Amino acid sequence: MNAEGYLIQCSEDISFPEDNTIIQQTADCSTTFEGLKQNSTYFIRVCTYRILNGQKVCSDWYQTIKAPLKTIEVIDGITYVDGIMIANKTYALPANYGDGLTDETYQAYTAMVSAAYYQGIYLWMESGFRSYDTQAYTYQSFVDDRGQELADLCSARPGHSEHQTGMAIDVNTTSDAFAYTDEAVWLAAHCAEYGFIIRYPYGKEEITGYKYEPWHVRYVGIDKAAAITASGLTLEEYYGITSVYAN
Ligand SMILES: [Zn+2]
Predict the structure, then answer these.
(1) How much distance in Å is there from the Cα of 72 to the middle of ligand 1?
(2) ipTM higher than threshold 0.95
(3) Is the Cβ–Cβ distance between 191 and 198 less than 8 Å?
């Protein structure tokens, strides 16, 4: 953007009323809003401005972003954001957690597979729940084969795998070629209708910590899946959390 500076507005009201909007003027398009309330939803929008003949001339507002501020809760060593159990590179699960897919996840998966079948799309479960011990073994095999750096890009360290939540499923095949199948296209277009999100989207490696995995879906419930998918954001971006190993 060719601009003198940016105006960034933040409000709990999408109409950005003057008396309930924080405005910041910045030289680059980045800022921090302080003193916001947890468990509230804020709307943020940006425009650019230039000074012409001593007057500030503003562009139209760019797309408004919805930013839910959610408290991160830790219960029995398990991290939740907005009620969603988190297992990523920042947040690990206890070694003894989990004993299979959750009932909700399995039922949603079954409904999705049936719906797909009637549209000529064949989905099957390549991998569902994975225990801490199984993941420890899987991860170590990757490390032995490819070294730790490459292993960390495609396999989770034990405790950090989303498969241990019992709410993640790898569909059909964990091969990059899956991305070009009708099944992958259908899954991306319809999984949210059943409460799943494509958890590691294309181009978001730096944010999720994982390469694109068109086969890996995560159950978050229908309402949240719809909201997250519509936002075009990853789970990390949507809730403002990180996915980075501490070491
Ligand atoms: Zn997976």
Answers:
(1) 24
(2) yes
(3) yes
